[in-house]
Design goal:
By secondary structure, the protein is α/β, with parallel strands linked by helices. It has 4 helices and 5 strands.
Length: 153
């Protein structure tokens, strides 16, 4: 027997509840909200999600998410190319950029080494890290920063 009076609603709730941090109760609330919205609003949300999923690419230089082959950070001439911050994933870039305190470039590894989950250095973009002699530096010594999430023990 179906949990709700509509199988379509049940399917929508099931799909929404697969998102991180969204349980069945919140998924039902979101689904009912969307059901009450104008049809055009829901269609625009679906289109935005499809466009995001189908059109976002990885920057060919730093591997951050981007709408273009070169992200807005790497293509910004005001960024300090002598500073490189190596981060685990794109969420780290977003968090650091929100602080407005770093004006250098990034290198997104695509995860962290985790032998328990079978993630080895070969699974990350360590080899793609540009060698220090390949990056353009100013007359000052190059700076390198590593940003990593805390270890889970």
């Amino acid at each position: 027997m179906a949990e709700y009076s509509s199988l379509l609603l049940e399917k929508a709730v099931d799909e929404l509840s697969k998102l991180p941090g969204i349980g069945k109760k919140t998924a039902l609330r979101l689904a009912l909200h969307l059901l009450g919205e104008e049809k055009g609003r829901t269609e625009q949300l679906c289109k935005s999600l499809n466009d995001m999923r189908n059109n976002i690419v990885l920057c060919k230089r730093c591997y951050n998410i981007s709408d273009e082959p070169l992200c807005s950070i790497c293509s910004n001439p005001k960024r300090n190319e002598s500073l490189l911050c190596v981060v685990a994933d794109m969420r780290d870039v977003l968090a650091i950029e929100r602080t407005c305190s770093f004006d250098g470039l990034y290198h997104v590894l695509g995860g962290i080494i985790n032998p328990i989950e079978g993630i080895s250095p070969n699974d990350l973009r360590i080899n793609e890290l540009p060698p220090s002699n390949a990056r353009p530096f100013s007359s000052t010594a190059p700076s390198f920063t590593m940003s990593a999430p805390p270890l889970k023990v």
